[in-house]
Design goal:
It is a single chain. The protein is globular. By secondary structure, the protein is of the alpha+beta class.
């Protein structure tokens, strides 16, 4: 297959009228062939929208086996002045380019759309677009596998799911990799860890776009072949019960089949290029590429309901292990009817963020005949790895002597049993409610103050008695009271370098230096092969951009856009927005009418592409 060119043909020119202004839409489709598992671009060029807000694209329900997502490129704004019949006026022209990435999981002909583009009260319509996707051959050197957990899965459980990609071919020839599983669009997932610098990455496609997962790489021998195996993990959070068939996970790979050697700038002077290429890095770029595919096995995810037998009253949907409940009272000496603030803290390993409180009366908790309890759900907040709730209750009887232990139950998916934890009871002193008579209200004689006795002290049972302001307060907390028997140690001169402080600092410094050298040596000897492949790919894309200066404008723009996409896929956290802006400018040249291209690419755009690409090299 020849070098993949992101060229397109204009298939529709539509105009719409909205809010008294014309909105014009030009639709272009990436030139075929389109392949299964590889996104094909439908591009909308829109004039007549404002700079803000970002437009949206709505489309008719997609055919089965087809998914799509859109990305709005920042608007290009052109301002200037016009002179019409001697009258000078200022104008502003806003142009949006919006890419719709369409991917099919099966070969066939599809109709995508129609589309409605909206921005506030403005909108424009675009007709449906026919697209044909061709099958991709299987790759004997590539494997892909989705590893579901063994055992049963329950609602809201945190379930680790592994993605394993194996490749026995030339990793330096890889131009792009797309991995997709319908599981990632059917359920909710926990936050994915951000890849750290120097760590392997695995690209995953979803209906909302591509994500890059932190991964680990290793070499594995199997069936007489040596594979580079890259593994990443996501956290599945099932939100409903049932049996869910899953289509096989797939991996689609684009690899270089033929390289075009870039000429050395020293060839004209009679020098050989091999030594220079070793010093300056690989200067090849792909002349031809091929697409291949691998698929895993079909699977079924079964999410079971919580068992009804033996379910405690204090179970409120918590799933995991090691939960605990702590209760603290704001006051412990009260009168009948006074409010008592209870701070309830839950800890555990599981769905703590979604944990809720069961009824306070559950499993022998607060007796509603002795306590007035709040109604409705009690909201909580996450704080330092714990879920905290605050409630207010009132004692209804003098006979109450304590706040009884509160129960909290959870389901342990490992043992498939319910577990219950209880808080500690809190002793209370409840006095009768004070009755205020009419004499108390109108009397001008002040009542004697209540002595500072048991009541006030009871309100703060854990607070120590305050010291008198006139008495000095000393604290020996944290002091070292050990007796040193060696007189030489006690009497030695701290200013003498032989006393030990300078010598100790020197030993510490030497120790840290040795540790640093050992760490660097170990990192150098245990370089992840996937990281090495990524670094070579980054250098290859940088050379690809440099070579574009020798090509005609459309070919150069195609090469630059493809190289920047590959860089963003490898390192999405580096200069993503700047790269997208350059890609948008390149695509404007690619999608321009055939007669409008220049012989060479504009120097400013080429320099901007080199500047953006250099940021990826510095972060590799």
């Amino acid at each position: 297959m020849g070098t993949r060119r992101i060229a397109a043909i204009v298939v529709l020119l539509a105009a719409a009228h909205a809010s008294g202004q014309d909105v014009r839409v030009q639709v272009a489709v990436q030139r075929p062939p389109h392949y299964v598992g590889r996104p094909a671009i439908i591009q909308f060029t829109v004039e007549g929208f404002d700079q803000e807000p970002t437009p949206t694209v709505e489309m008719q329900p997609l055919p089965e086996g087809v998914r799509a997502h859109t990305s709005a490129v920042a608007p290009r704004v052109v301002s200037g002045y016009s002179n019409i019949n001697g009258r000078i006026s200022q104008y502003t022209k806003v142009t949006y380019q919006i890419n719709c990435m369409v991917t099919a999981d099966k070969a066939g002909e599809y109709t995508i759309g129609p589309f409605v583009l909206k921005q506030g009260t403005k909108e424009a319509n675009a007709d449906a677009v026919p697209m044909t996707f061709e099958a991709v051959p299987e790759d004997p050197d590539m494997r892909i596998r989705l590893v579901l957990p063994e055992g049963n899965v329950y609602p809201d459980q945190r379930v680790p799911v592994k993605i394993e990609w194996w490749y026995a071919g030339d990793t330096e020839a890889i131009q792009d990799l797309s991995i997709y599983s319908p599981l990632f669009d059917q359920f909710r997932f926990g936050p994915d860890a951000e890849p750290r610098r120097g760590e392997s990455r695995l690209p995953i496609d979803t209906k909302d776009g591509r994500i890059v997962l932190a991964a680990g790489g290793r070499r594995v021998e199997d069936g007489g072949k040596e594979f580079v195996a890259v593994t990443a993990t996501r956290t599945l959070i099932p939100d409903r019960v049932g049996a869910f068939p899953l289509a096989p996970i797939t991996a689609t790979l684009e690899r270089a089949t033929e390289w075009r050697q870039q000429r050395s700038p020293f060839d004209d002077f009679g020098f050989g290029s091999s030594l220079l290429e070793e010093m300056m890095g690989d200067r090849r770029r792909a002349a031809n590429t091929a697409i291949s595919r691998a698929a895993g096995e079909p699977q079924t995810l079964v999410v079971k309901p919580f068992p009804a037998a033996g379910r405690p009253e204090s179970f409120a949907g918590a799933v995991g292990e090691g939960f605990s409940i702590d209760v603290a009272a704001g006051r412990t000496v009260v009168r009948v009817g006074d409010p008592i603030g209870l701070d309830i803290t839950l800890r555990g390993k599981g769905n703590l963020e979604n944990a809720s409180l069961p009824p306070l009366t559950a499993d022998g908790g607060l007796n509603p005949d002795l306590f007035r309890l709040p109604e409705g759900d009690i909201p909580g907040t996450m704080d330092d790895g714990a879920k905290r709730f605050h409630v207010s209750v009132r004692v209804s009887s003098e006979s109450v002597a304590e706040i009884p232990a509160l129960a909290y139950s959870w389901f342990d998916p490992q043992t498939e049993t319910y577990q219950t934890a209880r808080s500690k009871p809190i002793a209370l002193r409840v006095m009768p409610a004070q009755v205020v008579s009419a004499d108390d209200v109108v009397s001008s004689v002040p009542k004697p103050e209540t002595p500072q006795g048991e009541e006030n002290q009871g309100d703060r049972p854990q607070q120590a008695a305050s010291a008198s302001p006139s008495e000095p307060v000393f604290s020996l907390s944290g002091a070292d009271l050990a007796i040193e028997p060696a007189a030489g140690v006690v009497l030695r001169d701290s200013g003498d370098w032989t006393s030990g402080v300078p010598l100790q600092l020197a030993f510490y410094g030497a120790g840290f230096l040795l540790i640093a050298v050992a760490v660097l040596d170990r990192r150098r000897s245990e370089v992840d092969p996937a990281v090495v492949a990524r670094r070579k790919n980054v250098r290859s894309q940088l050379d690809r951009i440099s070579h574009a200066s020798r090509l005609r404008s459309k070919e150069a723009a195609t090469e630059i856009a493809a190289a920047l996409r590959a860089l963003v896929a490898e390192m999405p956290d580096v200069a993503r927005d700047e790269a997208q802006a350059v890609i948008a400018s390149c695509e404007s040249i690619v999608f321009a009418p055939a007669g409008s291209q220049d012989s060479k690419l504009a120097g400013a755009l080429l320099e901007e592409a080199k500047t953006v690409a250099a940021r990826f090299k510095h972060r590799e």
